[in-house]
Write a structure and sequence with these properties.
Shape: globular
Number of strands: 8
Number of domains: 1
CATH class: Alpha Beta
Distance between the termini: 11 Å
Number of helices: 4
CATH architecture: 3-Layer(aba) Sandwich
Radius of gyration: 15 Å
Oligomer: single chain
Order of helices and strands: EHEHEHEHEEEE
Strand order of the largest sheet: 3-2-4-5-6
Largest sheet: 5 strands, parallel
Helix content: 25-40%
Length: 169
Amino acid sequence: MTALALDYETLYAELLAQVRALLMRPEWVGAQLVGIWSGGAWLAQQLQRDLGRDGAPGVISSRLHRDDFGQRGLSSTADPTKLPQSIDGAPVLLVDDVLWTGRTTRAVLNELFDYGRPARVALAVLVDRNGRELPIEAQLAAARISLPATQRLHLRADGAGFKLEVEAC
């Protein structure tokens, strides 16, 4: 694995500023942060804390709605969806580490609507990369980059915090 020349702390600070600005808009008052398992869940926890919000953010899993589970199998490592509050009529900000093809986001939207009907949904990501296969767009992104389709970008937890790594597919 090769470390990508993207600094997590710098990207996180940019994403935090963008999320803070979004949540100040009247239509986003009372928004729920919902992290996409796993990197997005870590980010949502950190955002929730740094924004001074009470309680825990929601966590959502794509495992039951993936279109590739026939190839990948049903992941036993993903946490199940946990939404601490009802999403009916509430704005929801989905948080993820990397947006690539859009397939995980599509699966997560299906899962989200199994729990209710939010007033609006937006997507905030640390890194938006090329390679979209579905018409999914991040409203907030700390960085927009291009990577070859043969490489994956992952947020990894290490002893000191988080780092972004690139690896071969």
